[in-house]
């Protein structure tokens, strides 16, 4: 099919999109009463007649609308002269801002003629007549209210007028005024309407204009755009992406492009990184700057924008709060903010913990500003305070003692300045590590747990007495050999050692008031641990059975997790079971080693937050399956390093076992 480009109606052809027509109006034979357009805005208003004789037209509703709009009087200003809503106004809006890719096509005798569209307008009903009805209603109400007052009172109502002279408009004020919605509306209203004449579909003028949709000449001169060589046509379809290369996507202000960052000088790179990250170890900073960067140059640059706190670099306050800026929360100037943040940084050079109330009391800043300072470099811990977010970097401190000494001298100067500004007392200058530790004990000693158990038993003495009678009756009927002199029973005390007894206080309620599984009569002092010989064997057998079944399911457990599982096991046992005789940590660990397990000395990092029980790792050395050798090799690997890459494990297993393991087998061993 030959395609031709028609130019006769170029920049004159519009596409009107009418709404769904009501039953009383058909666009084919409707009478267009008037039409007008604003060419610059491409805005059109059409006034169309409504067929009031159509059976779907509600005459009473039309009369009511006309009465509300025009009232009872009829003159030239009336919207509906026939006292009936017999017309409807449609107002246009642009359907698309860019219509350059749309065209009207006419197919005739094997030829396709295209005319580019100048605009696509959607027509919607205009309800300005309702505004006119509201205005009429307000006028009538004002007339009724004004009729009651006399003319003399109206003459006496004199108001004072204040005359003001407008100031000369600045350039910024003029730009804001020009861009305002009110100014744009005023500009649009100033454009005059151009009245049009509507010609129907079958009118001779319409037939004549419709011929312009066809290309007037088929010569090469008028259709050079559509006659191209194959290479030119391909170039038109796929133009070179020159503009795409030049135009770079605009990233959000808080997103940092590493590709763009590395095009900047080294000092600017470090400043941007520190400003975004705020706290960073030196090793991380070197990894972000890319390979080949001189560490000496980095050290020289980082000292200009950051300070050393606990072996890590923290961005300087004046970088975050430049001169002539202020707090977004309180409006405090940048100089005061820098002083307050320097105080927080200095506190972290003295201790890992900082209390927010103390900072607020010294700096006299609002809580939001203090919270911002702390969030830059620390993490909140419940009932403890704010802890510095990174561990102490011993490697950097050992490698660069000269830098550490220089930073220490700088902090001494900052401390002297802070002492003068804030009038710091001695309690502010000395670290409170010992006080913090004593105020918040992390570990409850075994002696304290025993004392708590004694107090608990004495409180529940009445209930214990009843349970004792029941227990005695059951023991007499079931097992006469298990009779015991309950009055001589005492709570067992383990020898003083580094091992701490297990915390079984949470399960006292489950044991029906039993202390270590046994009842007491008058008082509970301490258990001497002397049990009948048969009972000791039963306790060992029960404990061994529990440990064996647990490690066959889990293979690797920390002491903390094993104690948790043992407490759950105790909770599921009936009252008076042999395991309630009192199992200490040492007994549990000895039984683990007796059942074929080994302790794996995993070299956890020194700054880990794990408890001592979480650092003791036990593993089943021989399970009797085909993976014993693989498991032992894996445990040996973890005894040298607590974090190992998967490919290292795979290679080590293949070398030690002499076989090439596939991924599924390695996964099974790791699991």
Automatic annotation (TrEMBL):
Name recorded for this polypeptide: RPC5 polymerase
Domain of life: Eukaryota
Gene encoding the protein: Polr3e
One cellular component term from this protein's GO annotations in UniProt: RNA polymerase III complex
Pfam families to which the protein is assigned, alphabetical: RPC5, RPC5_C
Coiled-coil annotated spans: none
BP term (GO), one: tRNA transcription by RNA polymerase III
Residue stretches of biased makeup (Basic and acidic residues): 134-143
Domain (DNA-directed RNA polymerase III subunit RPC5 C-terminal) ranges: 432-671
InterPro entries, alphabetized: RNA_pol_III_Rpc5, RPC5_C
Region (Disordered): 134-157
Provenance organism: Centropus unirufus
């Amino acid at each position: 099919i030959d395609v031709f480009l028609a130019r006769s109606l170029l920049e004159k052809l519009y596409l009107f999109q009418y709404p769904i027509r009501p039953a009383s109006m058909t666009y084919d034979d409707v009478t267009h009463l008037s039409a007008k357009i604003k060419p610059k805005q491409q805005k059109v208003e059409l006034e169309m007649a409504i067929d009031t004789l159509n059976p779907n037209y509600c005459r009473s509703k039309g009369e009511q609308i006309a009465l509300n709009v025009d009232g009872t009087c009829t003159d030239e200003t009336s919207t509906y002269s026939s006292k009936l809503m017999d017309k409807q106004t449609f107002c246009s809006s642009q359907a698309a801002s860019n219509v350059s890719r749309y065209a009207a096509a006419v197919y005739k005798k094997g030829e396709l003629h295209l005319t580019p569209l100048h605009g696509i307008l959607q027509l919607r009903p205009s309800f300005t007549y309702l505004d006119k009805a509201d205005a009429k209603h307000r006028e009538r109400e004002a007339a009724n209210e004004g009729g009651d007052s006399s003319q003399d009172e109206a003459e006496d109502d004199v108001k004072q007028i204040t005359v003001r002279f407008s100031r000369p408009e600045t350039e910024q004020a003029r730009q804001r005024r020009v861009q305002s919605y009110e100014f744009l509306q005023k500009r649009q209203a100033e454009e005059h309407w151009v009245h049009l004449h509507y010609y129907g579909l079958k009118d001779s003028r319409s037939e004549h204009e419709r011929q312009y949709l066809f290309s007037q000449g088929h010569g090469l001169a008028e259709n050079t755009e559509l006659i191209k060589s194959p290479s030119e046509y391909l170039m038109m379809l796929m133009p070179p992406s020159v503009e795409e290369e030049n135009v770079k996507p605009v990233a959000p202000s808080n997103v940092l492009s590493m590709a763009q960052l590395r095009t900047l000088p080294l000092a600017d790179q470090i400043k941007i990184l520190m400003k975004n990250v705020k706290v960073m170890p030196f090793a991380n900073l070197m990894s972000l700057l890319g390979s080949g960067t001189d560490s000496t140059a980095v050290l020289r640059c980082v000292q200009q924008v950051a300070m050393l706190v606990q072996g890590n670099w923290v961005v300087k306050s004046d970088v975050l709060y430049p001169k002539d800026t202020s707090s977004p929360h309180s409006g405090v100037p940048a100089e005061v903010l820098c002083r307050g943040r320097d105080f927080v940084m200095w506190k972290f050079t003295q201790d890992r913990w900082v209390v927010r109330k103390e900072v607020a009391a010294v700096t006299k800043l609002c809580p939001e500003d203090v919270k911002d300072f702390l969030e830059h470099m620390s993490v909140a811990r419940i009932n403890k305070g704010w802890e510095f977010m990174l561990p102490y970097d011993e490697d950097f401190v050992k490698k660069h003692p000269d830098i550490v000494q220089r930073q220490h001298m700088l902090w001494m100067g900052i401390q002297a300045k802070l002492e003068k500004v804030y009038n710091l007392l001695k309690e502010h200058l000395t670290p409170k590590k010992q006080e913090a530790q004593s105020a918040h004990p992390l570990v409850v000693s075994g002696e304290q747990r025993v004392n708590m158990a004694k107090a608990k038993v004495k409180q529940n003495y009445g209930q214990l007495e009843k349970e004792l009678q029941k227990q005695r009756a059951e023991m007499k009927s079931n097992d006469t050999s298990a009779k015991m002199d309950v009055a001589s029973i005492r709570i067992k005390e383990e020898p003083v050692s580094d091992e701490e007894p297990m915390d079984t206080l949470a399960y006292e309620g489950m044991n029906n008031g039993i202390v270590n599984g046994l009842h007491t009569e008058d008082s509970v002092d301490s258990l001497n641990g002397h049990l009948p010989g048969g009972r000791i064997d039963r306790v060992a057998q029960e404990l061994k059975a529990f440990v064996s079944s647990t490690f066959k399911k889990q293979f690797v457990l920390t002491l903390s997790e094993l104690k948790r599982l043992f407490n759950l096991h105790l909770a599921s046992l009936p009252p008076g079971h042999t395991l309630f005789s009192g199992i200490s940590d040492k007994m549990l660990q000895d039984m683990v080693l007796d059942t074929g397990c080994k302790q794996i000395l995993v070299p956890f990092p020194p700054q880990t937050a794990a408890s001592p029980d979480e650092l003791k790792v036990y593993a089943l050395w021989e399970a009797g399956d085909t993976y014993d050798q693989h498991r032992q090799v894996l445990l040996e690997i973890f005894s040298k390093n607590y974090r190992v890459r998967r490919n290292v494990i795979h290679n080590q297993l293949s070398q030690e076992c002499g076989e090439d393991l596939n991924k599924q087998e390695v996964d099974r061993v790791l699991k």
